[in-house]
Amino acid sequence: MMASVEKLGLRKSLVEQWPLWLVVLVVALQPIGRLPEVPLLVMALFGLKDVVSCRRELFSNLGFRLFSLLFLCFWLPALASLPDAVNVEKGLSSTLGMLRFYLAGIFIIHRLDTLATHRLLSMAVAAILAFWALDGIVELLVGRDIFGLSSGSSLYITGIYGDNKRLGYALVAFLGVALATMVSKKQLLWSVSFSVLMLFVVFISGTRMAWLALAWFVFFALAVLWFAGYRPNRKYLAGALAVLLLVGAVGSQTPSVRQKVSASLAAFNGSSLDTASSGRISIWQTSVDMFSDNWINGVGVRGFRYAYADYAKADDMFIHGEEQKMGAYHPHQIVLEMMAEMGVVGVTGLLGAVLIMLYLLKVLTAHTHRFSFLYAVGIATLLMPLNTHLSMYSSYWASLFWFLAALLFAAVRAEGIGANKN
User: Is the pTM for the entire model greater than 0.90?
Assistant: First the structure.
């Protein structure tokens, strides 16, 4: 009888945690195209309900207010770019489409309101990332992952992502969430082991964007800890350096890393900087020219690809190369993206977003043992102006960014930072 009662209680607990399982599902489905949009859409519908029925509770909370301000920093510039957009239909669909991420974020902030829920979430995400990483190592060893997938190129290790090169920066994007429980419980051995696994797989993935993002993640974490008064132990520093050297030595023997490092060093061996950067210099020059001609509100959100041919040089590889005739899809740099597509208005919005994150990181210097600290480090990494990543307004990257932002501000709410919990 007692066993039946306990089983019934466990089943009820699992049912009551359905918002958590929806969130976990978004993470688990990341490698499968746009399928994560399905649970996000469900969240958005419930988020709309939460806005109507719980608006007083939401507006009284710092996490919700900061999330809303951060969203407006990107949404209002997109809206302001529409009157002069080179492709109004694309710009309008992207701008209106962003609202689903905001509503899904409200759902997450409102429903994931306990530390116990965030502990479960963190452990689930850690398990998912560990599986992705180990799957990537399988591909490195045998040429295909456990599902038979392969990147089809020696330049990249993609694991479960197949022919998509997102494995490396997906691991970095979710790293803060995955580490939160281990760090909060001071599980040093698990934290170090997990971090080494992530570091190694990000390195062998061959994605330079992910390498840079991981470096910024470590930098932000150390910077906040430093300002919080923590000083590193020399033994820990020596151990960290030894681990880095070991990962670098082993990883550098893989074809993906060797070829990417060779390509990066090509500029010092007589090749052009543009070739070494996979055409990034041409894209960035075109972005600047686009901005100078549309400096107030840009060419419209997601309009970069449609205006590219009008501003590209005559020998631009993205116009006259073998693979593309239309031009580059986006600037591969967040500041230049805001400049080219939304002008000064967009840059102002980005500055506002950076200031919000700096304010939150300052607040969290007194809460570095909490979940929101590592969540915030992850978001600060994605917003770092010196990154070179996907478009902030693309369906994939926007859904990922706003999903992680919502988790951050849900943790702020759950931990009662800046407000009393109801």
Answer: no
